[in-house]
Write a structure and sequence with these properties.
The protein is built from 13 helices and 11 strands. With 437 residues, the chain is of the alpha+beta class. It has 2 domains: 113 residues, Inositol-pentakisphosphate 2-kinase, N-lobe (Phosphorylase Kinase, domain 1); 308 residues, no CATH class. Strands 1, 2, 3, 4, 5 and 6 form a 6-stranded antiparallel beta sheet that branches. Strands 9-8-7-10-11 form a 5-stranded antiparallel beta sheet, covered by helices on one side. A hairpin with a 3-residue loop joins β1 and β2. α10 packs antiparallel against α12. The longest helix is centred in the middle third of the chain and has 19 residues. The protein is globular and about 80 Å long. Adenosine-5'-triphosphate (ATP) binds next to β1, β2, β3 and β6.
Length: 437
């Protein structure tokens, strides 16, 4: 295991962060273990991040769940050339405290107000640095790639959900609540595989990047590892290019450079296929299956006279014991899913079929929430863009497992999104998916 504790916290530079983790890249003296790597550390809410944990002295800290999940599960679904290499590393409180002291000021203020590095963690993840090197790196969080099948939808939601994608409805709700939202971007354009629509998606993401001053989480741009804001957009141009005043010229060069790798990579198609094939019931159908399974098990027990009210999806049911999945559960699920040997019948509720559909839904949620990073050469407006080349030029990050405890929140959010959606004249999201025969 590489020993990060032998590096100085000043050797690491803040890159970026999400809701759960914060990432630093190695900038110290040449070192075979650390050159070209980033350190991904877990965060905790302010107030909890620095409260010493109650774990016993000598008790082994578990590895970050993302490592086993990627190596034992994700690599069975995604070609490894599109994944960063992940390695477990030891940490300690003193080293982390020094890192915080040196770098916390570089974090966005809003994030600092909410959370901080979890000083209680004794393990972190060292990963391939996908944004460093002498090039551009474009990070896109594509979100939901498909429209659900109408089969399991309620009358109230069917029309909206089969015409407008979840992201577009969610963005409208966020905007109505005064929250930041990429209202022009539709993921179904990005996933369409059609040049004109992919270009439209890129331009919408760019617009969201400009209006949010680079803070939107659907598009992040890095130049030689440095996070770029719209005001620094000259940094996207190749050495020797004249400064370009017109932002539309930079946008068009950016779109022209990005569209080809997005059309050529299998990554978007893989994500779209996994998201939709793992979420066949929609959260509404899954919730209905949960309720039907409870009543089927209750009637088998012949306790129908004293049946308690249904448990909310993901809650602790008196009728079956569905535990949070661990790695062996995921691998058994994947054995069935990949071989298609064991088919489950949603019309015939059993605790086994319910468990299958829940695990599938959780995996789909991971693919709905991950990001991709595309590496590009610096832009030269007015010339044909050169590609970085190779399958590794597009990689997927943030493939963390999702927890069963989120099912109830997902159901509630789904209802809120549908209830708040106000139809927009002429607006339809087109799902261009064509299964390969
Ligand atoms: O529900 P969504 O679609 O808003 O997704 C959440 C993300 O919001 P987004 O829409 O991408 O701005 C949200 O992203 P931010 O923290 O807002 O950048 C998280 O990724 C969240 O996942 P988790 O709770 O950290 O496991 C995501 O929650 P999950 O739905 O994946 O659980
Ligand atoms: N391997 C990597 N190389 C370079 N940068 C990375 C790498 N992994 C993550 N990052 C950067 O760190 C940020 C946070 O990482 P990540 O998306 O995994 O965090 P998260 O907290 O799980 O996000 P979310 O809020 O979506 O759950 C990313 O948006 C990206 O900019």
């Amino acid at each position: 295991m590489p020993d990060v504790l032998h590096t100085d916290p000043s050797d690491w530079k803040y890159v970026s962060e999400g809701g759960a983790t914060i990432v630093y890249s190695y900038k110290g003296a040449t070192h075979a273990d650390f050159d070209g790597t980033v350190l991904r550390l877990r965060k905790a809410p302010v107030g909890m991040a620095d409260t010493p944990s109650t774990s016993l002295e000598g008790e082994e800290d578990p590895d970050d769940p993302t490592i086993a999940f990627q190596t034992k599960c994700m690599e069975r679904l995604i070609p490894p050339e599109h994944l960063p290499r992940l390695v477990n590393v030891h940490l300690n409180r003193t080293w982390l405290e020094k890192l915080v002291e040196m770098h916390d000021r570089e974090r966005p203020e809003l994030r600092r107000a909410k959370d901080a590095i979890d000083l209680n963690k004794h393990k972190g993840v060292l990963a391939t640095d996908l944004v460093g090197g002498n090039r551009l790196a474009v990070e896109i969080k594509p979100k939901w790639a498909f429209l659900p099948s109408p089969v399991y939808l309620s009358q109230e939601s069917k029309h909206s959900k089969t015409n407008i994608c979840r992201f577009c409805m969610h963005s409208q709700m966020r905007a109505a609540r005064g929250l930041q939202a990429a209202t022009d971007y539709c993921p179904l354009d990005l996933f369409s595989g059609r040049e004109e629509r992919v270009l439209r998606a890129i331009r919408s993401l760019w617009q969201g990047w400009i209006t949010s001053d680079g803070a939107a989480n659907n598009l992040k741009i890095f130049a030689s590892g440095k996070f770029i804001r719209p005001i620094d957009s000259q940094a996207l141009l190749a050495d020797g290019c004249e400064p370009v005043k017109n932002m539309d010229v930079i946008r068009d060069a950016f779109a022209a450079a990005l569209v080809q790798p997005l059309l050529e990579t299998p990554v978007l198609r893989i994500l779209s296929r996994l998201q939709r094939n793992l979420d066949v019931l929609d959260i509404e159908g899954l919730s209905d299956l949960w309720r039907r399974t409870e009543s089927a098990v209750a009637s088998l027990r012949e306790q129908s006279n004293s049946v308690p009210p249904p448990t909310p999806i993901g809650g602790s049911s008196p009728f079956f014991n569905l535990l949070e999945p661990r790695i062996p559960d995921w691998t058994t699920f994947l054995d069935n899913y990949i071989s298609l040997e064991k088919q489950f019948d949603a019309s015939n509720p059993t605790a086994d079929s319910l468990r299958h559909y829940i695990l599938a839904y959780l995996l789909s949620a991971t693919f709905k929430d991950c990001s991709i990073i595309v590496r590009l050469k610096y832009l030269q407006p007015g010339t044909v863009p050169q590609q970085v080349g190779g399958p590794q030029s597009v990689a997927i990050i943030d493939l963390d497992p999702k927890s069963m405890s989120k099912l109830g929140q997902w159901e509630k959010l789904d209802r809120e999104i549908v209830a708040s959606y106000k139809p927009v004249e002429g607006k339809v999201c087109v799902d261009d998916w064509q299964p390969v025969m």
